[in-house]
Amino acid sequence: MRLPLSLASARRALALAAIAGVTLAGVATSRAADAFTASQKTGIEKIIHDYLISNPEVIREAIDALKKKEDAAEVAMREKVIGEQSDKITRSANQAVVGNPSGDVTLVEFFDYNCGYCKQALASVAKLIEGDPKLRVVLKDFAILGPDSVEAAHVATAARMQLPSDKFWEFHKKLLATRGHIGKAQALAAAKEVGADMDRLEKDANSPETQAALKEVATLAEQLKFDGTPSWVIGNEAFVGGVPYAQLKVKVDNIRKCGKTAC
Prior knowledge:
2 domains, five-stranded mixed β-sheet, 63% helix, 10% strand
């Protein structure tokens, strides 16, 4: 689930429009403050104003160009982080690994147990694992949707510490498929159902190791500029949002085919 960005997006659009339009006049006049008289400055501003009124599509073109430039910069930044933090992203001891632990392709999911899109993505991830015996899936608790999500992440991390991969996958599916809001109580119930040692679970949930594991995930998410869940890493690509099964499968297949998510 992506964090609320509608207000920020609206402000950004307005700011970009200002940069593309009115601010151009400000830049032109400020840099040449000593070269033009007041009446000349007014004339320049009017020329720019009239041009933009007659050709408003220029503002949209400027916004689109800036968006493409920002997107390209974000892709490059994420690729750089993936390269620098590859071990922590795909091979950290502070994560759950399901599917084939020795698989030839790794799909990393940053999720929150209260994220509606993560609940929807569960079916896609499960289908990928069931249909691809060589797929390795890394699950990272990125608890961003409130205190209950944080408590559930503590319990899940503790469960991961003691449960074998197949049992943790069972726990993960049970908890993520739970109807309604998920917190500590629901996480404990799911852990009990799969046979976890509940005394050890309570102890591990509050341990420094659990705190360190969740902090590591949060730090990676911050470095990758993830602003919502689910967020994904596969190969050298990182992206945010719900992705249909077919698209995920294409990315996995392409990694095998050409080493990139898009061949």
